[in-house]
Amino acid sequence: MSELTLPLPQPSLFLSPLARRLPVLYQAAFTQPAIDNHAHPLLRASARDVLPFEGVISEAEGEAQADSIYTIAARRAVNQLSHLFKLDSSGTMPSTTSMDENAKWERIKQFRMKLDYDALCKLSFNAAGIHTILIDDGLGGVPGGMASKAEGYKWHDKFTAPGRSKRIVRVEVEAEETLRSIFASSADDDFDLLSKFEVLFKKKLSNLADSSDVVGFKSIVCYRTGLDVSLSSAEKEKEDAIEELWKSYHSNDGRIRLAHKVLNDEVVRIALTVAGEKGIPVQFHTGLGDTDIRLTHSSPAHMQPLIERYPGTNFVILHASYPYTRDAGYLAAVYKNVYLDFGEVFPFVSSSGQRDVIRQMLELTPTNKILWSSDGHWWPESYYLGIYQARLALFDVLADIVIREELDEGAAVKIVQDALYFNSEKLYRL
């Protein structure tokens, strides 16, 4: 782990009374190498400008994206990226003192686009101290979509410890590929589509789980039909749904989007069964997301019956379930097979909101079951902001707890080390 260049705090933190009072905790927060337990690929250099850079600070899309630069979280990210790029001290760009928010943001965008892409990636990762990345490479997984413009997961090894990047398999993408292969060779009078799918999909996941590079599955059922996954579905309902998909496939040039609740629920149940047999975790997107999500169906509280039905499968609740963090913390506290990830709130949520998320997480969640992630995707700066802000928030919250004499400094250091590294190392058997 010593080969990594670890992040340096912003200058103001050197003067922090907390840093002077708790130097061991401060050092741990900013020098502990990290395992990123949930992230996505970076774009290829040739595709670096195909998406608006505003996506690095917000899940907003379309017209709403223009407003994202006016959030407190975005303004903080501008300051931190200016520090990373040494803009105010380099003399190559105007100072931000008299600039409005739009001008500050445009300054960041202009500067990063002038940088060689490999240099931009190295700069972001050298300042991050990320040792290992577990990559869900199914983001934008529609054939010909954004996934085709992204680097493969192994490519990211050049910025972390060699050979350490691993794969998280997005099960809905694999299910759609399985359906396409079945539909492409099926006749109009094929009445056995459902059983073919269930057999082939389970076999596909089993084979993937046997790969040394696959360390977990992930479900985005939260996006598709909600987290209230049923424990069983009637065969007739599943047959009708797959027939509807078959018709859609043939009338839409082979395109498939799995968004039929009975089939989505079946995909989740098959994935949980295989994961339990193979001893790998299943990650679930929960809470914070774009407009595809129905917020009322994104709380992990909906998953309680599912968690009880599959006690031999480990569930990883992603993104601190923001704004349902307490729901997630409760589940992680009372079920042995539930772990809580606290990613994506960095950098989408303000610093005070991030600290509140960590406080709420620590209200109930056992500290050996919390996992950090960046949810880094497309842009290298998303990884930098994801880890840097997490380090700041962990230090601030734990320092406050130590000062209140509810925890000693050594115990707080252990929590930092476990949350950033050792809990993920153990859960994913790295």
UniProtKB/TrEMBL annotation:
SUPFAM superfamilies listed in its UniProt record = Metallo-dependent hydrolases
Matching entries from Pfam families are given as:
Amidohydro_2 (PF04909)
InterPro entries (UniProt xref): Amidohydro-rel, Metal_Hydrolase
- GO terms for molecular function, please? hydrolase activity
Which intervals hold domain Amidohydrolase-related?
Answer: 269-430
Question: Under which name does UniProt file this protein?
Answer: Amidohydrolase-related domain-containing protein
The species this protein was found in: Hypholoma sublateritium (strain FD-334 SS-4)
Q: What is the lineage of its organism?
A: Eukaryota, Fungi, Dikarya, Basidiomycota, Agaricomycotina
